[in-house]
Amino acid sequence: MLYSKIEGSGKPLLILHGFLGMSDNWKTLGTQFGTEGFQVHMIDLRNHGRSLHSEEFSYEMMVQDIFEYCHANNLENINIIGHSMGGKVAMFVATTHPELVNKLIVADIGPKFYPQHHQDILAGLNAVDFSKKPTRNEVEEIMSQYIPDFGTRQFLMKSLYWQEPGQLAFRFNLEVFNKKMDEIGVPLPPNAVFEKPTLFIRGENSNYVLDSDFEGIKQHFPNFTIETIPNAGHWLHAENPVLFYQISSSFLK
């Protein structure tokens, strides 16, 4: 079963993190939604956070995980917010189980194919040799040689934990990601359609969702609207959480 943090009570709202993230990334926003009439389920997707580690890693498997999670928790008529890879999972859930989903919010990703673009990040993560028992500072120093962006490193460092005294490890399943990276970029099938209200939110400075993608989005989500958060990149919910929350909560009401 998937690990989750549950906040508040009311209409069920699932929040799905991006690649190499975890539910903790959404703690502040999730708690905020929990005070506004939602029972918020911040979920660790498989091979991330505290959820199961498995050799199986695909959108098909992650959709099945979410479906079983909803069934086990008696969740119906759910709303979903998904960011990046979590947004792609959310799109797959909505198009394969439309009876389960009420409204869908997709943050800075589209239904199209995305080529691999995490090579430097994976190189930095794989460069860390935990058998040498590095400190947190040493882990960051190693990663900085491959990942110059401070914000990206801080995001990745959130998945670092003490496996036992003196022994750090990453919570995500790096070994499987090294083998299955192509799974992250796969597109929705051509016949995948979700006709209920769908909101795409993109960052103005991000290139994940372009104006030229709108026609492709409409084919899968005919009842879609799109909002752009100014001066924000791919981490739009972290860069401008106030506006992200305002746009999202307005759509969900």
UniProtKB/TrEMBL annotation:
The record's annotation in Gene3D superfamilies points to: alpha/beta hydrolase
Key word Zinc present in the record? Answer: no
Q: What SUPFAM superfamilies does the record tag this protein with?
A: alpha/beta-Hydrolases
> What residues form the membrane-spanning segments?
none
Keyword terms: Hydrolase
Q: Name one GO molecular function term.
A: hydrolase activity
In this protein, which residues make up the domain named AB hydrolase-1? 11-109
Q: Does the keyword Metal-binding apply?
A: no
Pfam short name (any one): Abhydrolase_1
Which InterPro entries did the record assign?
Answer: AB_hydrolase_1, AB_hydrolase_fold
State the source organism's domain of life.
Bacteria
Descriptive protein name:
Alpha/beta fold hydrolase
The scientific name of the source species is Flavobacterium fructosi
